[in-house]
User: Fold these one by one.
Assistant:
Number 1:
Amino acid sequence: QVQLVESGGGLVQAGGSLRLSCAASGRAFSGYTMGWFRQAPGKEREFVAAHSWIAGTTYYADYADSVKGRFAISRDNAKSTLYLQMNSLKPEDTAVYYCAARKPNTRRTIRVPNEYDGWGQGTQVTVST
């Protein structure tokens, strides 16, 4: 099972930027569907973004409407690392952010948390006004 470790969280003012990283262990990272989710206190875990292998070196990036145009998901297969670049941050982006992995599959995107095979421990992102 893939092991995931997130980093890069912190405290930032509204309008600022952060980049989260998720280091993955194990083989076949390039074929995994990778996702970012977040969970605020008292709320359910929600989908943020997903990055799925399509064919060759082509990947499909999917975003929740709430982050579209502000966040960008990407990966470096040589480093087995997933990234989430977060710009124009808002106080409502405050949450614990989790990285998730799903074994190679034929799905274009996966937005449901329980369809992922492995999770990281989470990293806190706090956006102040």
Number 2:
Amino acid sequence: QVQLVESGGGSVQAGGSLRLSCAASGIADSTTTTTCMGWFRQASGKEREALASIRLGSGSTIYADSVKGRFTLSKDNSKPTVYLQMNNLKPEDTAMYYCAAAHPCTGDTWIRILRGDRSNYNYWGRGTQVAVSS
């Protein structure tokens, strides 16, 4: 069973930075590269928003326009862990941040993720809270 654990959330002032981590367990070493992972967030009273996704095999990434240029994904396949570096944070970034995994993630799965289909994410973490004050 795949399990995801997020960490790194907290409170920060506008303009500050945070680095979120998502550690995955239960993924066999031989199948790490056939995994895609993504970050989502949900602010109070709003729908869950897709932020960024990464394909662990190729390192291909996609970002939502709302975070492009401010947030950066990176990965460590040996663990495997995905990181979300968040810079120039704004009050509107305040939300619960969730990590998700699509496992297995084939080429067709990745294409569907690129098209915004989040139904391919079959494992979810419990989330980590980010609060940005002005």
Number 3:
Amino acid sequence: EVQLQASGGGLVQAGESLRLSCAASGFTFDDYAISWFRQAPGMEREGVSSISIVDGNTYYQDSIKGRFTISYDNAKNTVYLQMNSLKPEDTAVYYCGAVLRWIKDWKFENYVWTEDEYDYWGQGTLVTVSS
């Protein structure tokens, strides 16, 4: 059974940090990239960060560059999102998803933030940043 288990959300004040975890099981980890998306109230879900498991390449949206760091522990099949210097606008439900690292001859950067290409999703974890 495929599972993506997201955890680590909570309530913090602006400027503080949180680390989200996404524990994966039931599929071949190396074939995928694991990404974090977030959905703020009243907004569409947006991609935040992604990591390609096989080569460790990382991808970040401009809004969080320099503040968030994505990493993975292969032994634990877990991807982490370290979020520092949190801002109220980071408040959202954060989801992790898994997308194939190679689809036909597509360039990964062209579909990494396309939700329809994702095979698996975890449940969300709520991050609330107070001002």
